[in-house]
Amino acid sequence: MAQAKVSYTFGRESNQQYGESLAGVRGVTPSHQFAVDIPARDENGKLLPEISTEPRGEPGSADKRIQAYNFRVIGTNVPENRLPWPKPAGYDPWRYELLARYLAAMTEFMGSPLTFNEVSLLRIIPNGKVDLNNRGGFSTDYIGKNYAYPNGSYAERARIWKEHEDYQKGFYYFLANDPRVPPTLQREVRQWGLPKDEYEDTDHWPHQLYVREARRMVGEYVLIQKDLQTDRSKPDVIGMGSYNSDSHNIQRFANAQGFAENEGDMQVPVQPYQIPYRMILPKRAEATNLLVPVCFSASHVAYSSARMEPQYMIIGHAAGVAAALAIRDKKPVQEITVAELQKILSSQAAVFEYVPYPQQGALDILRRNLAPPQPRPFNWE
């Protein structure tokens, strides 16, 4: 898209640009936040590591900051398949001083230490494994260190990638080894590690950085907040989205009271909404042979929902069929027959309308014929 000189943007629009109440710098960020006040500076008045020196910005204002990236690490607690958390080159425990103080403060506040699931979200997957993600005030998201990624050169992106890897490896290593980590949390973290049978060609570390958002096309139609909330039907529908408006934190700064604060997290439920074909079209004057199913045309607010992998697959499916029609008919992608596109997609099981499932009759049958599902125990040891 960028190499074709198609218009794009990155970062956050102001709330005035498209009339979005959720746009711009967030006035209040309650989730994935420090639940207790942690001084942002050390005893000598020096800012702690992983806290930005930049001001937060006015609520609702635009900026070029990007929601945080991390690696979606796979962990296992099966001893014969488990490797210890690796120590990254150049590891410095001082980098995690804010984490150490956060853990101590939360232990005092709650009366017991945080669990591993409370500092790095664990979601069970098969074969004694979990998918690990970000959770809480200080976790696997490397907040504020990806701003140069959208327009970065290949070399700059590689540098950012490696910095994220070192940060996250250091995060797990700190939890597993630093004496300031509460013993019960440390014992739990040590029960987990990288699986020997995952990512064998990249030292058992995921081979993809989780780039949640970078460039976004400014195309024929820009999907915005109202398209997820109040204007959810589209004549050129190619699929549906339904995930929350979900942005991870975007910056960490010292607030006016002198405490560490995260900003940018957004978790706003939506009802199922229709995805328009126009969203993947460049402006006709810029390109007529390009479809953009990932860096599609949307505001930061709308992208935060439509960016989820199921929607990528839905939109990619539609883009492939649309490309085939444009080639067959020798037409610009803006001029294909959308009704034919929709007919083909529908025949291939695309969903254009939300119908609650199962319907009452089917639910009655299930109740009569199926025993209640039994929970499957999981051995946390």
Write the layout of secondary structure elements.
Elements: E1 8-9, E2 74-76, E3 82-83, H1 97-110, H2 116-119, E4 122-125, E5 129-132, H3 154-177, H4 183-190, E6 194-195, E7 216-217, H5 225-229, E8 237-241, E9 245-247, E10 251-254, E11 260-263, E12 266-268, E13 273-276, H6 300-306, H7 309-329, H8 338-347, H9 360-369
Antiparallel strand pairs: 1-7, 2-5, 3-6, 4-5, 8-13, 9-12, 10-11
Helix pairs in contact: 3-4, 7-8
How does this structure look, described?
The protein is an alpha+beta fold and 381 residues long. Helix content is 27%, strand content 11%. The protein contains nine helices and 13 strands. The strands form six sheets. Strands 2-5-4 form a three-stranded antiparallel beta sheet. Helix 3 crosses helix 4 and helix 7 crosses helix 8 (338-347). The longest helix has 24 residues, at 154-177. 38% of the residues are buried.
